[in-house]
Amino acid sequence: MKFSGFPPGKTRFTPIPDLFFAELLPAIDDLAELKVTLYMFWFLNRQRGYPRYMTMAELEAEGVLMRALEAGAEGQNPVELLHQAVARAVQRGTLLQLSIEDEEGTTDYLFLNTPQGRKAVQEVKRGELVLDKVGPVREPYVPRPRPNIFTLYEENIGLLRPLLVEELEEAAATYPAEWIEEAFRIAVERNVRNWRYIKRILERWATEGKDDGSRFSRPRAVSGPR
């Protein structure tokens, strides 16, 4: 997707402290942590009143954030990426986390490490502030299905030629979907964007096995009644 640019007219902005760019940005070496940190600035700035926070469950349901994490997941579960990113941000001191248990279980509350966030955390610990579990959850996150081989071809190589349709269908029925996605990714990284090269990668893995130790298991042919 190519961004078409910011539209003319009134545009809302999200304030981010200069210290983020001077101190945090050079230190953050994980893309998921950076995405979560920026999202927290954006989301909490749109809240009103006091205190401003998000629960982990609310973050897991944020479609925009989860799709952003999914874009760089490379096969990893985006929910697991979210939890890892939050843990890094808490350890770094960008976010503050409070875990509160009740009869329904444990709720993890997340605040930015700002004067307002620190004040809220201390008030909760002293029993002066009670947090409400219900928070703003907008568009739910729905994991997208794996792209089929035709989508991978058109996104990474170009317009699909009719002569290749049968060959791609055969490859999709022969090799695991994870192998096909990875072979396309390798071809793009090496700037060899053609199906013949991708097919050779799959054939080599089928013969020699992959570096991760996984082996090829050819699907059994279904025989008819005798």
Feature tags:
226 residues, mainly alpha, Arc Repressor Mutant, subunit A, 2 domains, 3 strands, disordered C terminus
What does this protein look like?
- The chain folds into two domains: 108 residues, Arc Repressor Mutant, subunit A (Orthogonal Bundle), CATH 1.10.10.10; 60 residues, Arc Repressor Mutant, subunit A, CATH 1.10.10.
- 50% of the residues lie in helices and 8% in strands.
- A three-stranded antiparallel β-sheet has the order 1-3-2, sandwiched between helices.
- A hairpin with a 2-residue loop joins β2 and β3.
- α7 runs parallel beside α9 and α9 packs across α10.
- The longest helix has 15 residues.
- It is elongated, with a radius of gyration of 23 Å.
Q: Would you identify the regions where 5 or more consecutive residues have pLDDT less than 50?
A: 134-142, 219-226
**What is the number of domains?**
2
- Through-space gap between termini: 52 Å
The pLDDT mean sits at 83
**Sequence of secondary-structure elements:** HHEHHHEEHHHHH
Helix/strand/pairing category? mainly alpha
The radius of gyration is 23 Å
Please report the first level of CATH classification, the CATH class of the largest domain.
Mainly Alpha
Give a count of the beta strands, DSSP E runs of length 2 or more.
Answer: 3
CATH topology name of the largest domain, in short, is: Arc Repressor Mutant, subunit A
How would you sum up the global shape? Answer: elongated
SS strand fraction: 5-15%
Helical content, roughly? 40-55%
Largest sheet: 3 strands, antiparallel
Judging by the overall fold, what is the CATH architecture of the largest domain? Orthogonal Bundle
- Number of helices in the DSSP assignment: 10
Strand order of the largest sheet: 1-3-2
What is the CATH H-level superfamily of the largest domain?
A: Winged helix-like DNA-binding domain superfamily/Winged helix DNA-binding domain
